[in-house]
Amino acid sequence: MEYAIGIDLGGTSIKYALVSKEGAMPYAGSLDTPATAGARAVLDAIATGVAACADYAEANALTPLGVGIGTPGVVSADGRRVLGGAENIAGWEGVDLAGGIEERSGLRTVASNDANAMATGEWLFGAARGASDALFVTVGTGIGSAALIDGHMWRGHGGRGMEMGHITVKCDGEPCACGGRGCLEHYASTSALVRRYAELAGDTGADGREIVRLYLAGDPTAAQVLSEHWAYLGHGIASMINVFSPQLVVVGGGISEAGDFYFERLRRSVGAQVIDVCAAETRIVPAELGNRAGCLGAAGLIL
Ligand code: BGC
Questions:
Q1: Which residue of 74, 143, 176 sits with most ligand 1 atoms within 8 Å of its CB, as the best mutation to test the pocket?
Q2: Ligand 1 mean position to 63 CA, how many Å?
Q3: How far apart (Å, rounded) are the C-alpha atoms in residues 121 and 115?
Q4: 258 touches 96 (CB < 8 A)
Q5: I need a surface site. Which of 7, 70, 129, 172 has the fewest CB within 10 A?
Q6: Contact 94, 175 (CB under 8 A)
Q7: Distance between Cα 86 and ligand 1 center (Å)
Q8: Nearest in space to 212 (alpha carbons), one of 197, 202, 201, 222
Q9: Which of 172, 176, 199 minimizes the C-alpha distance to 188?
């Protein structure tokens, strides 16, 4: 059986897994992203995850064919460099990601945008199996996206892909880390939810999971910030549906695992804004593979 190591690099954590061509994941783990420590520290941390997978493989007589990495930002068409657009990780611009990991691990490495990797995972093994037209949205530290159009993963000119997190949802909005203003990511990411809760409730240290727990317990501030979250995310997704008329919108990222109520509210918010005929055949569904999608799709770059 053929195996590859899949890495899902996020602004908060690095997930790593050994993945078979059939999508089995005999070994997986995660570690914190040293997101403010600079590119070298992030490369070292990724290499730690790769080494853990390689050690497991060796102990079990499995041979990984290489390393696939999903990273925030725009990746060069040859799958080697992060060109930019990954502001949630300090110094993660112009980085020779594939070279840095090959040097540290001795394994052939290919990189891709993290949302593209998640989308590939969900297309091959998850919620979008058999689909021809789908939009994929990841909601986490940032907001990532990818589109499957007419049975092909859309890559954009030169593989520069799509950055739905940076469409404008508020013209006179606050500055976003990307240099623009009023971006969807600035208002609808999990980081935005946490920032907004702290603005209203003071610094309680509540993260996304805690805000959801507070919401379910009837906390009015959590209800307000989640309502704002659904409104902004709903506007962003509705705009994308108006553009692409996909059959599916697959939403992933930790917050999307909150439960059915999360999707009911999100669908309502999209429904209030979208052109009905564009959305007539669009289902908005949770990612099926959860946190595993990124690693599966990243390993798919090799397999
Ligand atoms: C980046 C995207 C990335 C997303 C999720 C955004 O800030 O611009 O490239 O896919 O975060 O990590």
A1: 143
A2: 31
A3: 10
A4: no
A5: 172
A6: no
A7: 6
A8: 222
A9: 176
Is 122 within 8 Å of 105 (Cβ atoms)? no
pLDDT over threshold 90, residue 160: no
pLDDT digits (tens, 9 = 90+) for 32-81: 999 999 999 999 999 999 999 999 999 999 999 999 999 999 999 999 99
Percent of the chain whose predicted confidence (pLDDT) is above 70: 100
Distance 19 CA to ligand 1 centre (A): 23
- Please give the structure tokens belonging to residue 241: 């549906």
Q: What interhelical angle do 190-201 and 220-244 show, nearest 10?
A: 150
> Which residues form ligand 1's pocket by a CB distance below 6 Å?
72-73, 85-86, 88, 113-115, 138, 142-144, 163, 165, 185
Alpha-carbon distance of 31 to 49, in angstroms, equals 8
Please, which residues have CB within 8 angstroms of residue 107's CB and are 6 or more apart in sequence?
5, 50, 54, 64, 66, 67, 101
**How far, in Å, from the CA of 143 to the mean position of ligand 1?**
5
Per residue in 231-285, pLDDT (tens digit) is 999 999 999 999 999 999 999 998 888 999 999 999 999 999 999 999 999 999 9
Q: Whose CA is nearest to atom 5 of ligand 1?
A: 144
Residue nearest to atom 9 of ligand 1 (CA): 73
Distance 278 CA to ligand 1 centre (A): 26
Ligand 1 centroid to 90 CA: how many Å? 13
